[in-house]
Amino acid sequence: MFIPYRVDVPFDHPPVMNRVMVLVVIVIFALLVVEINQFIYQGGTLNEYMEKGILAQLVLRGWGIKGIFGYMWLHGGLLHLLGNMIFLWLFGNAVCSKLGNVLYLPVYVGLGMIAAITHLIFAGGSMIGASAAINGIVGMYLVFFPENSISCFFLLIYYPVRFSVSGYWMILLWFAFDVLGAVLSRNRLGGVAYDAHISGFVAGFVLAIIMLKKKYIVMLRDEKSLLELLGFEKRQIPKEIRKDMAHWQQEWGESETEKAGLETIPPEPEKPQEEFIRYRCICGQKIKTAKENAGKIVRCPKCSTRWKVPEN
Length: 312
What we know:
mainly alpha; Rhomboid-like fold; 3-stranded antiparallel β-sheet; two-stranded antiparallel ribbon; 49% helix; globular
């Protein structure tokens, strides 16, 4: 299994909301462990806890609003929690920075609820874990940052192998694993809720496309969305205007020229100004980044050292 440990995405804004959510999920897991241990210590069983426990009421077990909303905050074990939090921290921080802290929480919860409803319709059964909602965030990441590299590692016997690859390759591979898992587990009950994973991913993917089309989200100059990568969308180039007259004067002049039947001569395009900041890392690697990233924290692609982009 490939485990990601870094994504190469400069932050537009500090992803405060996602960091708070990670902390909340960890705190809820700790409270869940304490509650279960206290219940068993007092002579109860795990099955009895699932019926009477306070946090157990958040398990998805039907069409109750508590389960549809609450299942995504619970986890069944430390490895389950750790795996989900790695993905939420990496991809959630990037998407939260792009959406903004106010919008991110309802988007995350909405994706999780869509996945829960899909699971109840097509599979049924109980479910806990943030995987489905996180898959929705990963689907949004694919639309916003398809070419940004994802650094991963896996264990080859006892030796960790590290590599970096463009985001769309790795994310589509993970999605293919979910589709394969859904096909192979179609006639089995329990286990991984692949249907929720897939529906969450698709919901996030579609939502991100709608946000780009409606201009709720605008990509920076040095960013390329999946729509641009596939050729479905092109950057709008601002109309050239003369610098020595007001905008209304230029439009009036153009209209008068058209009325007279004269051919308009387009102004000679100005030489574009330098839009990048260049500097050198301590390892010797030359780094070029857009001026919009001035003051932000970026990583060196060679040695992974974190740098604050100079102002000029």
